[in-house]
Amino acid sequence: EGRTSLIVERHFNIESRAQSAEVDGRLNEWALLPLVCENPSQVLGRADSWTGSDDGSFRFGVEYDNSNLYIAIAVIDDRIVLDENRPPWKQDGLKVRLDARPDSLRDHNISEDEFELFLGFYFTVGESPTKPRLHFPDKLPVGTAVAAAKSERGFNAEISVPLSYLREQQGDDWSAVRLNVAFFDYDALGTARAEIQWRPNWGTVESFPGSGTFMRR
92-122 burial by CB neighbour count: b if 16+ within 10 A, else e? Predict the structure, then answer.
């Protein structure tokens, strides 16, 4: 006997694209970013410092071509807090987790062990759009590209991951990945952050099996 929560979640689409995307942080090759995080499923850290979507929010999209999986993110933030001497999670930045293992493994993933079981991208705006401040770039698959650039309302980001990595994890007929996006929002350097999660962080009790599953179309 026992009690558990029943979570209603749907699958999301990985749309195909006819032409490859240039990973430059400009997003001009993206017609739509359909997934919106204005009402996050979880706010970690100093949750009361987050006052709503104008304070910090984002939208994103996931697509693929014959060579790469692409993720594009547009962050809206009322105050961009950056410091080249701090790691990405100690300033306004992004955390993207991508699990490309078979569904029996990725659906129940609650691990914090990035790079060994799945990919973890921790990054923010750097010296140029194609040179963001990126945590442990040498642990990412060869051919991975990451970009970030300031925008009028915050900053934009792009990631590309070679499909060869997905095939290594699932086989040539790869069909799905599990993904989560989070935004580190600071009001000033040295203050506590609010960590705005699209889906609950995989290492917390609020996480549920199969959250953020994207199916190839």
Answer: bbbbbbbbbbebeebbebeeeebeeebbbbb
Tell whether the torsion through CA atoms of 166, 167, 171 and 172 is positive or negative: positive
C-alpha 160/C-alpha 49 separation (Å) is 32
Pairing status of strand 154-162 against strand 68-77:
antiparallel
Report the pLDDT value the prediction gives residue 8, as an integer from 0 to 100. 86
Whether 68 and 20 have beta carbons less than 8 Å apart is answered as yes
Whole-structure pTM value: 0.94
The 10s digit of each residue's pLDDT in 52-92 is: 998 999 999 999 999 999 999 999 998 999 999 999 999 99
pLDDT along the chain (217 residues), means of 10: 82 94 95 95 93 93 97 95 94 96 87 81 96 95 97 96 97 95 93 94 90 95
